[in-house]
């Protein structure tokens, strides 16, 4: 018997790619090749490198070529639910990128290039459901980050540099093998800061609203004192598993 060959996958032609371009809600041009049974990066789409958004999610792609740097207009790149073990260094040249989703792949810490820290305009980074046992402290250089998904990996620590990101609002680290901290307050201080973020100042609340907020806060504090859970991490519904049926509509994953 001969060698068993892997799946060939669907061949994407330039015509198919052109017919897959959609206009997004904000007027951008989105090339949507998600759920197409693709096993290799379609070289023909390099001729459409002027698109604003590229969706290759839910395929069987194992490698993203260095030629991804041709997509200099990209603001939104979705590669979730493929079979990627690494990302090319050239991804760091996509200076307009503000959304990058590579969750539900096979990414290892070695496969996460240092050049990802060059994405200075990145707002959302989803690295969940991978094989990461560490992340580079240099991710703390991404000062525009608002949301980070690190759930379902093999992480045992989170770099302190992430704790100091000035605009970070959501951090999902669920289901990682973190050791039980010896000093809970020290370990989760930055996450508490995010959880207690106020969108208005107390002086701007009416008396009844202020009292309601204070009562809820006291109730939460009492609950924490009675049933401490050092290993529990905050959960943010916007950074859940990408294969959730609740998020099947790709529009719900986009920044508004």
Write a structural description.
This protein has about 260 residues and is α/β, with parallel strands linked by helices. The chain has a domain of about 150 residues: Ribonuclease Inhibitor (Leucine-rich repeat, LRR (right-handed beta-alpha superhelix), Alpha-Beta Horseshoe). Helix content is about 15%, strand content about 10%. An eight-stranded mixed beta sheet has the order 1-2-3-4-5-6-7-8. A hairpin with a 5-residue loop joins strand 1 and strand 2. The chain is globular, with a radius of gyration of 21 Å. The C terminus is likely disordered. It holds the Pfam family LRR_14. It comes from Oreotrochilus melanogaster. InterPro entries: Leu-rich_rpt, Leu-rich_rpt_typical-subtyp, LRR_dom_sf, LRR_domain-containing, LRR_R13L4/SHOC2-like.
